[in-house]
């Protein structure tokens, strides 16, 4: 296997130093990509990465004799639009064809004889998916794991429970719910809809960006909690992201949960929309009461499936799915297995996903590690070329990195950021989210625009070079965001 | 002869039906023409062959052309999700909403939201009611009035959102069997009166458009009118079964909220429902429980983005319209034919069993409740469960069974044996159904009665034993048939000596090619029996089985069979193993599939003796004060066409069971006679 890989390596040219025409550069970049990959394959075998990460022995046994090849990866993702540099896995994730095929099988099995499927197959197979996830995230019991559509749904479930506590007087009016300023838009709206409306006080904690160290975040969080507890108020719920979405930063979640415990916060809910497949997810280590992660973002699931973990010893018994079926009262995990007739196929493919990721060296942990390394490499390549900086130090990046845009582009509002994103999509066929950061008081010439690049197994360096060149071309042409209109 | 109409859009004007097949490739999509029976079969080729699926009501169905369209949407998303999200999704959802809005005669597309299913809609409405209680806008003890047979999920939603905050509930008992709308309307009036007792206010009335179990088409317009007269604050019509099943005109109905699934009777894949909210209600406080950044922008917009998920089933509505247009009369034509055919089959079963329909034909839709012979002694919900499982496992008939407990003082309706009818089956009719499906049900029940089986002594649910038994009983019969089919005469002995696996393999090989003659059903059974031994040892299965969460049993009609999972599980697993193989062979066979797929099975059953029962039942039915005359009046032209076609098919396709064909004719004659 190693030999096959090595055969594809021409003696290395360094793509980062290269100023050759695009085609040659792309070829060079591709070559470097293979080179890098194979180097990593061979090196990581020696450090025992594979052994620690395979979640389930059964799957290990069924490993194919050799790991997935790059052409196999290409064919697994051949449904992606080839014209596009898709360096935005973070927004919608990706799903390989083998998993899509498995999903279609499930869909067909339902359609074939729905009654039988409903009575005999659905529940045990969802349970199988839940059991697989339970092992993956190191939960205590299967019952702690429920499958829902997405993190947005999970947030509604947890926040509804909080709302009930306020309404039924278990929490006093004015008790606080604290959350990070960078919480996902939907979650903020959920808090508004469920908590604010029922009389809870919501406190948003401002976080610094760019971030220099985890301590900055921990300190801000302590301050925020102190504010929440002012006037003898109780903090009933802390809502913490594991990986913030925009700007993207890994939050030192273990420390924050610990602080919450020390400060007597009732419940901790970790919103890890980007969690599984992107950062380490170990329920016992993290110790939150509720933890949710999408599987369709970084875990190769089709849209959409997420798990919601509820610690058994916590308030899990009060959780209910907002869509109530005959399973009401049988525990959230069971309630979630039937929320009316619908397509449950995305929840049934978890075992197939495990098969897919175990075709990679080191399984999902290996993928995660390589994605992280590659995205940092690409991020550093970009900041070097553009003369900017990363939004946070590498150890605080998951498989996504915030990369500062050249100041001269003049990103001066969120609208500018959106328009720039559209421009990159339409003119350069690059899919990349952009972020506007308002300059602080007294700041001049600070970086106001960032892009968030993602790296997933199907990505190739030339895609990031295309982004690099596109921005450089704009800079060279004296482009300003102010010249853009809808 | 089928009349061919050409929709306006079609520019190549071809006519003629049979001639057309001669000079054109029948496989080619001929959008300008109506679907032929073989087209329909291939649209539903993914259905389990050999199963009489007369239960469209529970989970609906979806033709392959719509599934293809859905897959295209799924791929479009996966191909470039960002682009799709920003440019494709909203437009696609709006297109679906616009189609529905026209279909249901809404004033504005903003009144129509797309949801997963009726269960979600119930959560939305009841969450709102719950908030009104907890925020003090409603007084404690104010009421929600509903029918006792409302869908279980709705009842649980009330428990979760309304009872919890102090609201009270009044359940109106739906009279069943029912003979007129007036019975329902007056029962409902009583319920409203109860709801307003002691100065309480009725805040919400929940009315089913078509109840699920027992299934009755409700006089929904009258009921809404009654609500208005009685000052009920809001009316929510739960019409899970409605669209594609009855004409839906939301303006005529006049409810505040109306929800219908589209995956039950409107050929959508699971799952999609539309939720109609009277325009003024949109300024009210109605929100999707899953809150996204669209919160506060109106329910339709909120529902159009509830996080990343698969919206494909909501995007295929225009494709479904294409599909239904390929039937004469479009969805209205389908509805009418389903109703007429369901009633016709219902009457056929009634007369064979000597029982009655659960409601007069004009109160039926594509679903009909038919009384089961009292001799079966269905005495509890558990018995109904057992019978349903028996029919599925032993007879390959998928049909829900309803137990009707009598309350004190009720006399009930009697069947021809003067026993009280305590159970009903709910049959559904959808375009893919064939008369044989219902005949199989008829014969299964008739045979049970003939064998003096009751629910207390049904064959035991040790599947392995049952199957052997079934084999012993049935094997000789088809053996005799096989040569008569004019095929495979060289090896008639094969089935007698089925002991060795090699022989089994061999026979499978041979028979793979003529799957369509229906005998493969038998092969499958053999194959399964042998395979079961292996499967029994399958450790993986056992492990999976352990993961099953404890099941909660309740009255929900779709839920209660859970109980039998233990015993059925292994049997079904084999079937699943067989599935792949079948799908493959089925596709190959579909085009050539003959019109008589189930003959050997039919033949295996003792010939029914309808002639003797018929006169009796006719009398019975009339005496049951059912205005049966109306049924017949509704019956349109196409039905007759279909009957003759089927008859022809039955006779020409089947050399042997002339008897069946005759029986069929006599039934339709009989119902004609009622005209």
UniProtKB/TrEMBL annotation, chain A:
InterPro entries tied to this protein: Aminotrans_V_dom, PyrdxlP-dep_Trfase, PyrdxlP-dep_Trfase_major
Biased composition (Low complexity): 15-32
Span list, region Disordered: 1-56
Residues in coiled coil: none
Segments crossing the lipid bilayer: none
SUPFAM superfamilies the record matches: PLP-dependent transferases (SSF53383)
All copies of domain Aminotransferase class V, residue ranges: 125-391
Keyword Chloroplast tagged: no
The keyword Ubl conjugation belongs to this UniProt entry's keyword annotation: no
Record's keyword terms, sorted: Pyridoxal phosphate
PANTHER family, per the entry: HERCYNYLCYSTEINE SULFOXIDE LYASE, L-CYSTEINE DESULFHYDRASE
Name recorded for this polypeptide: Aminotransferase class V domain-containing protein
TrEMBL record, chain B:
FAM192A/Fyv6 N-terminal domain: residues covered: 502-587
Region forming the signal peptide: none
Stored Gene3D superfamilies: Type I PLP-dependent aspartate aminotransferase-like (Major domain)
Keyword Nucleotide-binding part of the UniProt annotation: no
Domain (Aminotransferase class V): residue spans on this chain: 96-280
Subcellular locations according to the entry: Nucleus
Keywords: Nucleus, Pyridoxal phosphate
SUPFAM superfamilies (UniProt xref): PLP-dependent transferases
Region ranges (Disordered): 1-30, 590-675
Composition bias, Basic and acidic residues: 10-30
Full protein name: Aminotransferase class V domain-containing protein
Organism whose genome encodes this protein: Brassica napus (Rape)
């Amino acid at each position: 296997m190693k030999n096959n890989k090595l055969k594809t390596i021409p003696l290395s040219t360094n793509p980062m130093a290269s100023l050759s025409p695009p085609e040659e550069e792309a070829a060079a970049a591709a070559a470097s990509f293979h080179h890098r990959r194979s180097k990593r394959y061979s090196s990581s075998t020696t450090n025992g990465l594979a052994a620690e990460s395979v979640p389930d022995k059964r799957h290990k046994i069924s490993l194919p004799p050799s790991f997935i090849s790059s052409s196999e990866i290409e064919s697994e993702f051949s449904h992606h639009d080839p014209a596009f540099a898709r360096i935005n896995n973070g927004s919608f994730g990706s799903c390989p064809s083998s998993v899509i095929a498995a999903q279609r099988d499930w869909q067909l099995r339902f359609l074939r004889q729905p009654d039988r499927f409903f009575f005999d197959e659905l529940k045990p197979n969802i349970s199988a998916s839940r059991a697989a996830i339970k092992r993956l995230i190191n939960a205590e019991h299967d019952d702690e794991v429920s499958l829902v559509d997405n993190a947005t749904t999970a947030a509604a479930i947890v926040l509804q429970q909080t709302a009930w506590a306020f309404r039924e007087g278990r929490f006093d009016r004015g008790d606080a719910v604290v959350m990070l300023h960078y919480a996902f838009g939907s979650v903020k709206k959920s808090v508004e809809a469920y908590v604010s409306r029922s009389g809870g006080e919501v406190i948003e904690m401002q976080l610094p960006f760019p971030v220099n160290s985890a301590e900055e975040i921990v300190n801000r969080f302590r301050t925020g909690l102190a504010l929440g507890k002012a006037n003898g108020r109780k903090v009933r719920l802390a809502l913490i992201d594991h990986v913030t979405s925009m700007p993207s930063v890994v939050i030192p979640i273990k420390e924050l949960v610990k602080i919450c415990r020390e400060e007597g916060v009732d419940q901790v809910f970790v919103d890890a929309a980007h969690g599984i497949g992107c950062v380490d997810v170990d329920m016992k280590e993290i110790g939150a009461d509720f933890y949710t992660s999408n599987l369709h973002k970084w875990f190769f699931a089709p849209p959409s499936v997420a798990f919601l973990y509820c610690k058994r010893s916590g308030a899990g018994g009060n959780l209910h799915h907002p869509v109530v079926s005959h399973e009401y009262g049988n525990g959230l995990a069971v309630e979630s297995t039937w929320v009316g007739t619908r397509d449950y196929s995305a929840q049934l493919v978890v075992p197939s996903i495990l098969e897919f990721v175990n075709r990679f060296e080191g399984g999902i942990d290996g993928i995660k590690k390589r994605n992280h390394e590659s995205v940092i490499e690409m991020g550093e390549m970009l900041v070097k070329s553009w003369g900017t900086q990363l939004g946070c130090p590498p150890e605080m990046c998951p498989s996504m990195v915030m990369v500062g845009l050249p100041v001269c582009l003049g990103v001066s509002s969120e609208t500018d950021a959106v328009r720039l994103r559209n421009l990159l999509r339409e003119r350069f066929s690059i899919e990349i989210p952009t972020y506007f950061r308002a300059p602080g008081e007294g700041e001049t010439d600070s970086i106001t625009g960032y892009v968030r690049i993602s790296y997933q197994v199907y990505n190739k360096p030339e895609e990031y070079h295309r982004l690099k060149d596109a921005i450089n071309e704009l800079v060279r042409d004296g482009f300003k965001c102010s010249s853009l209109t809808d | 002869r089928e009349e061919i109409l050409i929709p306006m859009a079609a520019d190549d004007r071809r006519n003629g039906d049979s001639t057309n097949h001669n000079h054109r490739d029948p496989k080619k999509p001929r959008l300008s023409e109506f679907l032929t029976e073989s087209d329909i079969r291939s649209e539903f080729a993914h259905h389990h062959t050999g199963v009489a699926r007369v239960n469209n009501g529970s989970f609906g169905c979806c033709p392959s052309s719509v599934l293809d369209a859905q897959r295209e949407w799924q791929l479009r998303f996966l191909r470039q999700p960002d682009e799709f999200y920003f440019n494709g999704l909203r437009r696609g959802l709006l297109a679906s909403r616009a189609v529905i809005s026209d279909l249901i005669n809404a004033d504005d597309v903003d009144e129509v939201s797309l949801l997963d299913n009726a269960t979600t809609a119930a959560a939305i409405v009841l969450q709102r009611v719950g908030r009104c209680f907890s925020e003090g806008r409603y007084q404690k003890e104010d009421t929600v009035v509903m029918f006792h047979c409302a869908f279980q999920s709705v009842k649980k939603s009330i428990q979760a959102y309304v009872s919890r905050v102090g609201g009270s509930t009044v359940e109106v008992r739906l009279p069943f069997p029912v003979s007129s709308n007036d019975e329902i309307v007056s029962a409902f009036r009583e319920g409203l009166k109860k709801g307003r007792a002691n100065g309480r206010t009725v805040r919400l009335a929940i009315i089913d458009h078509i109840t699920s179990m027992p299934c009755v088409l409700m006089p929904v317009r009258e009921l809404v009118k009654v609500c208005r007269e009685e000052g009920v604050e809001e009316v929510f019509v739960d019409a899970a079964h409605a669209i594609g099943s009855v004409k839906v005109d939301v303006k005529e109905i006049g409810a505040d909220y109306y929800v219908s699934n589209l995956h039950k009777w409107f050929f959508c894949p699971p799952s999609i429902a539309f939720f109609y909210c009277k325009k003024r209600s949109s300024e009210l406080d109605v929100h999707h429980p899953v809150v996204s950044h669209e919160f506060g922008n109106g329910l339709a917009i909120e529902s159009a983005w509830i996080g990343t998920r698969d919206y494909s089933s909501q995007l295929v509505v225009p494709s479904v319209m294409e599909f239904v247009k390929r039937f004469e009369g479009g969805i209205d034509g389908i509805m009418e034919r389903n109703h007429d055919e369901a009633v016709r089959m219902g009457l056929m079963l009634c007369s064979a069993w000597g029982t009655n329909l659960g409601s007069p034909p004009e109160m039926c839709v594509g679903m009909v409740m038919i009384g089961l012979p009292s001799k079966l002694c269905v005495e509890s919900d558990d018995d109904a469960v057992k019978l349903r499982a028996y029919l599925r496992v032993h007879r390959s008939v998928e049909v829900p069974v309803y137990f009707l407990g009598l309350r004190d003082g009720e006399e009930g309706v009697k069947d021809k044996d003067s026993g009280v009818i305590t159970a009903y089956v709910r049959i559904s009719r959808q375009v893919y159904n064939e008369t044989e499906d219902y005949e199989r049900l008829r014969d299964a029940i008739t045979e049970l009665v003939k064998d003096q089986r009751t629910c207390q002594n049904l064959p035991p649910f040790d599947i392995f034993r049952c199957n052997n038994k079934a084999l012993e009983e049935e094997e000789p019969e088809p053996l005799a048939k096989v040569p008569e089919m004019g095929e495979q005469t060289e090896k008639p002995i094969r089935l007698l000596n089925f002991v060795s696996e090699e022989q089994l393999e061999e026979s499978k090989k041979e028979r793979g090619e003529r799957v369509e003659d229906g005998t493969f059903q038998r092969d499958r059974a053999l194959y399964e029996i042998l395979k079961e031994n292996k499967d029994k040892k399958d450790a993986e299965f056992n492990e999976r089985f352990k993961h099953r969460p404890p099941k909660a049993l309740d009255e929900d009609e779709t839920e209660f069979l859970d109980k039998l999972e233990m015993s059925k599980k292994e049997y079904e697993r084999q079937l699943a193993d067989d599935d792949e193989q079948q799908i493959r062979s089925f596709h190959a066979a579909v085009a050539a599939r003959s019109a008589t797929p189930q003959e050997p099975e039919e033949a295996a059953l003792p010939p029914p003796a309808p002639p003797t029962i018929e006169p009796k039942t006719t009398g019975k039915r009339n005496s049951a004060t059912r205005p049966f005359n109306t049924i017949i009046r509704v019956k349109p032209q196409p039905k007759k066409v279909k009957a003759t076609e089927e008859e022809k098919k039955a006779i020409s396709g089947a050399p042997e069971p002339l008897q069946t064909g005759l029986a069929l004719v006599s039934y339709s004659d009989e119902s004609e006679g009622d005209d």
